[in-house]
Amino acid sequence: MQDPIANLDANPVGELELRYPQAARLAHGGEGGTFIAREHGGTRVVCKPVDSAAIGIVRQAFAVLRRVCSPHLPAPRELWVAPSGRVWMITDWVEGAPLGLGPAGLEQVLGEALGIARALAAIHAAGTHHGDVSLANVIRTTTHGCVLVDLAELGRVGSGSPGFIAPEVFSGGGGAAADRFGLGCLLVARLTGELPFRHPELVLALDHARLRERLAGLPGWSAVPVDVRELMSSLLEPDLARRLADDRVLIHRLEQLHLFARGQGGMAPPAPWRLPSRWPYRGASLAELLQSFAATRPPALVAIVGPPHSGRTRCVEEIVQ
To answer: 92: which strand partners?
Structure first.
């Protein structure tokens, strides 16, 4: 059977418009790139074609992700099968711009890393991994929060973006540890303005001594606080047995370092609390719902009302889920 991804020349925008009134290519890239579309109500969504060889893995990971609750992840919408047989992953559109190379301020970078670490912890706790942590896949939103996007590599091994790939990925491995290695590369890039490992041969030849030597030669490395340098080094350890392996420890350490960085620059007001974009479903089971529909009493009609931005769309989404 022909891989639908290999046939993306056959007007993918026209295919998406079978479901959405407007669609356009957003970016080129692996597996056919990324597309943006508008629903009939005007809401924007992101659409990515899924490689046919990975549909099973992505479907399972996508189902797990729908139960994840994090403001640092885009809400997954659906896996849509087009008439051509191509499978599309549909997620919420996140307003903002991707992160770029630094150098950026310590407080800002640690805040970004903390958001990414929380997103990864939610994904890992759900039993899967992101598979492609990189600058291009982190959106800094208009409210200055960070969202880890591009979920097309969920649960896959042997994947990633050049400059952010862990040593074990080159031999077909990957997982939560490789996600944390990618976060380490991102931290270095944001603080120094340079990727630590631009070429695969640097990663393949990496050991503990070469890691220290490479990091020490980066611009501005000596100006980074020692505790932050040690954290980045622990994330970039080529030896899995020595690499930081606990998401909770990582988050706690980033919280401490971020709080210290804020204090050093004059205590900034704390960021406002953000409600999650969705919550795991806590209603009746499917069997109970079917039983209620089979009863003599007809089901009730529920009307969801309220002013704009009061959460009506979110309520509908939870009911549908």
So the answer is: 45
What pTM value is reported for the model?
0.75
Q: What's the rounded Cα separation, in Å, for the pair 51 and 56?
A: 10
Minimal CA–CA distance to 195: which of 173, 162, 226?
A: 162
Which helix (H) or strand (E) is 146 found in, with range? strand 146-148
**DSSP conformation class of 20:** S
pLDDT in tens, 74-133: 888 888 889 888 889 888 888 899 999 989 999 999 999 999 999 999 999 988 899 999
Closest CA to 135 of 113, 153, 152: 113
Mapping DSSP to helix (H, G, I), strand (E, B) and coil, where does residue 90 land?
strand
Check whether the bond before 103 is cis (ω within 30° of 0): yes
How far apart, in whole angstroms, are the C-alpha atoms of residue 199 and residue 196?
A: 9
Question: Taking the CB of residue 187, how many other CB atoms lie within 10 A of it?
Answer: 26
Q: Which two tokens stand for residue 233?
A: 């080094």
Q: What is the C-alpha to C-alpha distance for residues 260 and 267, in angstroms, rounded to an integer?
A: 9
Distance of CA 64 to the CA centre of its chain: 14
Q: CA–CA separation, 121 vs 75, rounded Å?
A: 16
Give alpha helix (H) positions in 52-167.
55-65, 106-125
Residues 6+ apart with CB under 8 A from 34: 25, 26, 27, 46, 47, 48, 150
In whole angstroms, give the CA distance from residue 314 to residue 312. 5
| Nearest Cα to Cα of residue 132 among 48, 69, 208, 253 | 48
Q: Contact, 83 vs 41, CB < 8 A?
A: no
